[in-house]
Specification:
Jelly Rolls; about 40% strand; globular; 6-stranded antiparallel sheet; disordered N terminus; mainly beta; 11-stranded mixed sheet
């Protein structure tokens, strides 16, 4: 594990970054490497030692979907990795217990341990062994207020990856949600092609770049898709098409969840694994070295 000698000891870091206009580039365009020599590290966790740094991460207890719950007992740090476990439960209404961490407590903006507006965010992860199962690993960010009726510039859920979409025959999908999660919920998935090397059972780096006018997704430092977030989604039934990237700070999440729809069928799989794990080697966030102006 490579350690970077940098630490930012403040609970909430939010900046405004001046970014030159960049044209829309769809998935399949010319790939671009991310040059981190032009960025400054603003957050990192290398998961060394034997305990989770609770000044950076919350470990929520919460029921998710209709078949799983997050439980802190399945979150651990061992062998230089963050381990988010998943296991079958004997709970009568649930199927799986799963681990999750996030850089905000209780969805409360005043309990944000790390938040940032714009920049580059990445995690080096090893996916669960059964990415075709009913549980799935996520690396994602909640930016701004993803509330009922809010458009994407006010709030956006940004899903860098969801492991069930990396199974055989699936495209890598860079997914977005906005407008709350009820009647005005809206969503869009940027298809970035099949990425078969991500099924090799090894660690890979998943990252995304967030600027004032586009999002881009990276695998092992190479861009695989980009969107300006203009005019995406539905405009029916009170929903609003997207109007650009979020302009408010967000916080990071690494989670495992489960439901009856991600697997090979539309119901719970009969050959459900009893346990699995999602391993994270490190998490880092960056800002460009130029044009940094603190926002208040």
């Amino acid at each position: 594990m490579r350690t970077l000698l940098f630490s930012l000891g403040i609970p909430l870091f939010s900046v405004a970054v001046a970014v030159e206009p960049t044209p829309f580039v769809a998935a399949g365009g010319a790939p671009k490497d991310i040059d981190l020599s032009t960025y400054t590290l603003t957050f990192q966790d290398e998961f060394e030692g034997t305990t989770l740094d609770t000044s950076k991460w919350d470990t929520p207890t919460q029921e998710r979907w209709k078949g799983c719950r997050w439980t802190p007992s399945l979150v651990s740090v061992q062998n230089g990795h963050l381990r988010l476990g998943v296991q079958l439960t004997d709970h009568p209404q649930l199927r799986y217990d799963c681990g999750a961490v996030r850089t905000r407590r209780n969805y409360d903006v005043n309990q944000t341990m790390f938040g940032q507006k714009f920049g580059y965010f990445e995690a080096r992860c090893k996916l669960p062994r059964r990415i075709d199962a009913d549980y799935f690993a996520d690396f994602w960010m909640m930016a701004g207020n993803v509330g009922e009726g809010n458009n994407t510039r006010a709030g956006n859920e940004i899903d860098v990856f969801e492991s069930f979409e990396l199974a055989e025959g699936h495209q890598y999908s860079f997914n977005f949600h906005w407008g709350g999660y009820q009647k005005t919920h809206n969503t869009y998935g940027l298809k970035c092609g099949d990425q078969p090397h991500l099924r090799d059972g090894q660690f890979h780096v998943y990252g995304f770049l967030w600027t004032t006018n586009f999002y881009a997704v990276y695998v092992d430092g190479v861009e695989i898709g980009r969107t300006d977030m203009i005019g995406l989604g539905s405009d029916k039934d009170g929903k609003m098409k997207s109007n650009g990237p979020c302009q408010e700070p967000g916080y990071l999440k690494l989670t495992v969840e489960a439901s009856d729809w991600p697997g090979k069928s539309s119901g719970w799989e009969p050959d459900a694994p009893k346990e699995d794990e999602f391993l994270i080697d490190w998490v880092r966030a960056y800002l460009p070295k130029t044009s940094l102006t603190p926002s208040h």
